[in-house]
């Protein structure tokens, strides 16, 4: 399994990965219908494609030559010292094999000028919270706009100091 920058030809696989992993992670929390609605809005080919050319961002996939098993997307905020990890998803069958840690490490190395990596995580998503704490993040507050401005989805805000 290796981590590399995503390209346009990965986008169909990334979309399918996000749909499968979102259902596995969030159906029990938000319900199937709401998950369908959110993935349908946020993970369109156009939305994913726009990331490929977003400045000061990093869009990574974990690939074993056959399967895109993980995806990570991070982008600098208005403050270039603060980078936001907007997505980190590993297909359920590939979780707990070190892929999430590999993607996270590569994201951290991709923004040498940043001193803070920030993310939002659903408060009921205990495995992800455990993963982030084990990887050096601490909880710093709450958000009401998880995923998109005005989404109304509450989340915990975590940060990790870099460098
Ligand atoms: C959270 C997530 C990104 C972590 O990715 P992952 O590839 O499973 O992460 P890793 O394998 O690096 O680490 C996960 C656990 O497996 C353990 N692990 C790592 N390599 C392992 C191996 N070879 N054998 C057994 N366990 C291993 C790690 O110690 C870690 O334990 P922890 O959760 O207690 O810290 C992934 O599980 C995921 O996509 N979850 C669903 C979606 C989600 O919640 N994403 C985050 C949204 S904010």
How does the major sheet shape up?
Answer: 7 strands, mixed
Q: Average pLDDT across residues?
A: 95
Rounded to the nearest angstrom, the distance between the terminal CA atoms is 26 Å
**Silhouette:** globular
Second CATH tier, the architecture: 3-Layer(aba) Sandwich
Poorly predicted ranges (pLDDT <50, ≥5 residues)?
none
With strands numbered from the N-terminus, the spatial order across the biggest sheet is: 1-2-3-4-5-7-6
List the ions, cofactors and other small molecules found in this model.
Answer: coenzyme A
**Helix share bin:** 25-40%
Helix/strand-derived class?
A: alpha+beta
Quick tags:
single chain, 163 residues, alpha+beta, Aminopeptidase, 7-stranded mixed β-sheet, 36% helix, 29% strand, binds coenzyme A
Layout of SSEs?
Blueprint: E1 2-5, H1 11-30, H2 32-42, H3 45-52, E2 57-63, E3 68-76, E4 82-90, H4 99-109, E5 116-121, H5 126-134, E6 138-143, E7 155-161
Parallel strand pairs: 4-5
Antiparallel strand pairs: 1-2, 2-3, 3-4, 5-7, 6-7
Helix pairs in contact: 1-2
Q: Can you put this structure into words, describing what you see?
A:
This protein has 163 residues and is of the alpha+beta class. It has a single domain, classed as Aminopeptidase (3-Layer(aba) Sandwich), CATH 3.40.630.30. 36% of the residues lie in helices and 29% in strands. The protein has five helices and seven strands. It has helices at 11-30, 32-42, 45-52, 99-109, 126-134, and strands at 2-5, 57-63, 68-76, 82-90, 116-121, 138-143, 155-161. The chain has a seven-stranded mixed sheet with strand order 1-2-3-4-5-7-6. A hairpin with a 5-residue loop joins strand 3 and strand 4. Helix 1 packs antiparallel against helix 2. The protein is globular. The mean pLDDT is 95. The structure holds coenzyme A (COA).
């Amino acid at each position: 399994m290796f981590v590399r920058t995503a390209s346009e030809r990965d986008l169909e696989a990334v979309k399918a990965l996000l749909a499968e992993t979102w259902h596995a992670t969030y159906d029990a929390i938000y319900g199937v219908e709401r998950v369908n609605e959110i993935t349908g809005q946020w993970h369109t080919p156009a939305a994913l494609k726009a990331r490929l050319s977003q400045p000061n961002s990093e869009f990574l996939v974990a690939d074993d030559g056959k399967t895109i098993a993980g995806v990570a997307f991070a982008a600098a905020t208005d403050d270039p010292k603060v980078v936001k990890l907007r997505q980190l998803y590993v297909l359920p069958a590939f979780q707990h094999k070190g892929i999430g840690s590999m993607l996270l490490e590569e994201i951290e190395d991709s923004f040498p000028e940043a001193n803070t990596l920030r993310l939002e995580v659903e408060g009921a998503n205990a495995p992800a919270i455990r993963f982030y704490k084990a990887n050096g993040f601490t909880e710093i507050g709450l958000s009401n706009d998880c995923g998109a401005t005005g989404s109304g989805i509450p989340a915990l805000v975590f940060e990790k100091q870099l460098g």
